[in-house]
Amino acid sequence: MTRLKYKNNQSVLVVIYAENTHRVLMLQREDDPTFWQSVTGTIEIDETLRETAIREVWEEVGLKIAEDAVTLWDCNEVVEFEIFPHFRYKYAPHITHCHEHWFLLAVEDEFKPILSEHLAYQWVSPEQAVQMTKSPNNAAAIKKYLMSSAPL
Description:
The protein is an alpha+beta fold. The chain has helices at about 50-60, 125-130, 135-145; strands spanning about 10-20, 25-30, 35, 40, 70-80, 95-105, 120-125. One of its GO terms (biological process) is folic acid biosynthetic process.
């Protein structure tokens, strides 16, 4: 008998921004082209949060990050959010919420990502990124860490 494998409801969000332009990388989802977001992904079995963030950046935009990279910053923040109904089929039937751990990744310059899971990308101002994303928590992370007056 084949068992369905459901996604873990623990995930990471990695907001990538270019230090020289202070613009944010936004990705257009394949499964919902009206949905733009930062890098996100599910934590795999026996994987640390940092390992997940590094793997997801590699898988989604083709950028290799060293395990000890100081430009990948764990915000030590986790938010709970309701999974959009049209994405719930990926999770066990009783799962309606996800816990997302926030990371920031500073890159020196904007780069052309190698897309494997998304239709398109744009480098935009933090204000534009907040307007583009359907994800309230993605918007909140950008507002908190890239639109505040506090330096990173």
